[in-house]
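RECORD TYPE: protein structure
NAME: Nucleoside diphosphate kinase
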Amino acid sequence: MSGAGQRGGRMTREFLLGRVDFTPGADKTRVKRAVMLQRRVFHTALKHFFTGAQETKRAPPCGLLCALTWGQRLVLHRHKSSLPDVRERTLIAIKPDGVQRRLVGQIIHRFEQRGFKLVGLKMLQASQDVLSEHYCNLRTKPFYNSLVRYMTSGPLVMMVWEGHNVVQTSRTMVGNTNPAEAQAGTVRGDFSIHVSRNVVHASDSVEGAQKEIQLWFQTKDLLDWDSWDPTSTGDV
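PREDICTED:
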C-alpha cells in the first residue's frame, strides 16, 4: 500500500474510533481530512437510504464499510417486510392482580423479546357492561359473577400486539388457564398459582381477537408504525 493509502486508512480508523482531535490548536491538516471523511460517510449513508441501493458495482473505499452497512439498515427499515401474516393482531390484557403485583413491565418485556410489536396500550377500570360483552360465552357459568368482581377489583392494562402467528404464539406464552397446570417459562406458570388469579388474558383465536380489539379499542387508539427491525415478526 502507498504512503498516502496508509495515511488514509489510519485516518479512517482514528475517525471511526473517535480519536481525531477537533479542539482549537489541533493539526489543521488532520482536522480537514477528518471533516472530508465525515462528509463522505454521511453522503454515502444518505445515498443508500434514498436510492435503496443494496450493493455497489465496485468495492467500497476503505473506511466506508460502516457507512454502507448503516445505509443498508436504513433501507431495510424503509421497506416493509414481505413475510406473511405480519399484521395479525391479538388482545392481551393484564388483569388486576398482575397490575397490583407490578408485573406489567415484565409481561411487556416478554412480548417485546419475542419480537412482537405493540400497537395499542391503555390502562382502564373495566365496567360490568363491557365485561359482560367480553365474557358473553361465560355468562351462564357458575363462576361468572366472581369473575366479574375480580375483573372490576382494580385497573386493567389492555394491549394490542402485532406479528406473525401472534394469536397462537401468545396463547403458548401465556400458558394454561389453570396456573397449576401451566409450564414454567409461561406467564402464568411463572407468576400465578390459582385459576382465579391468573394474571393475564390472551385472545384464543384470530376472529376472537378482532372482536375483542374492537370492543376495547377504537381505530384511533391503534398506531400503525414501522419497526426498525422488519424481519422481526415474533415467529421465533
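COMMENT: Residues 89-221 form a domain with the Alpha-Beta Plaits fold (CATH 3.30.70.141).
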